[in-house]
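In response to reviewer comment 3 from the previous cycle, which asked for concrete evidence that the modeling workflow produces usable outputs, we include below a single protein chain processed end to end. The sequence was submitted unchanged, and the resulting structure tokens are shown without manual editing.
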Amino acid sequence: MNLRVVVVGIPGVGKTTVVTNLLERMKGGRLVTFGSVMFEEAQRKKWAKHRDDLRKLTVERQKVLQRMAAAKISRMKEKTVIVDTHLFVRTMEGFWPGLPFEVVRALRPTHLILVEATPEEIAERREGDRERYRDAVSEGELHEELGLARSFLAVSSTLTGAPMLIVKNSQGEAEGAAEEISVMLRKAAT
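The workflow returned the following structure tokens.
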């Protein structure tokens, strides 16, 4: 069975760390960061100079980039493709889905996985991340984002028929979270 695993989480949950650990367990898998594919297309179109510029683009331009990225990823031939992305993006126009209908359908996920952490852990991780330009948000706003993530996950699962899994990534436990996902995917592959 070919696996198309979409791993999501709000910024600061440690999703990329979990995905990196997961890839080590999934022999022969390919990791694709959806935002990086979008950014490559945005650079080609001269719409962005830094990846964090993407969320500042108009929603219409983001839609174009999303469709381009989804089409590119959907053509990948590897047996296991792990897509690291976000369920929604906080834009100047409000929350906007990172996986709208046409994008999530184009990706054809076999599994949807949400990585979560506590609001306190997320705030601490965001503060410590010097490579990204993160907007400051309160713990209340982080609670709201975590709730939205679960809602968007359920909708994406409903639209695609892909099962969903929610994994906790407590501080220092990324390997355990990756192992939980890996066990589930090994079962699915048999």
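Strands lie at 3-8, 30-33, 80-85, 88-91, 94-97, 111-116, 164-168. We consider this sufficient to address the reviewer's concern, and the full set will be provided in the supplementary archive.
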